Amino acid sequence: MNSDYRDLLWCFAEAEVRYLVVGGYAVIFHAEPRFTADLDLWIEPAPDNADRVMRAFSEFGLPLTGGIEPDDFARPGTQYMIGVAPCAIDFLTTVPGLEFPGAWENRVVVDDDGIPVNYLCRSDLVTAKKSADRQRDRMDLELLGEEE
Predict the structure, then answer these.
(1) Are the beta carbons of 3 and 13 closer than 8 angstroms?
(2) For position 116, which CATH number holds?
(3) Whose CB has fewer CB within 10 Å in the chain, the N or C terminal residue?
(4) What is the pTM for the complete model shown?
């Protein structure tokens, strides 16, 4: 994980943001290294968590652009991407096939040099990949040993 990602996750930890690492980095965590163009973070869509996200963004030095408002992080269906591949970050408030409360309960927390990082658990990752069902998701399912 690059230093910008780690700095952001440190800000998230300090602000007590409820988030989960999903997508490619979750596959890397549960299976094996593969290329990924971004870090995908699933943000709990709730007003109090949206406030924490804004505090973390401020600490990180990240302004909102592109018509995104703080309230967008309080409701499902928001996708906000910053940066460019291979160092982009994609903030999501919805993940196909999953509800945040259950996924949060099942999360795997890893200490990454003093930074607690919340990963989607393997079974929830498999559910999300099967629900999204894109070519990349099918390839990830193979890496996870879940090919059909």
Answers:
(1) no
(2) 3.30.460.40
(3) C
(4) 0.94
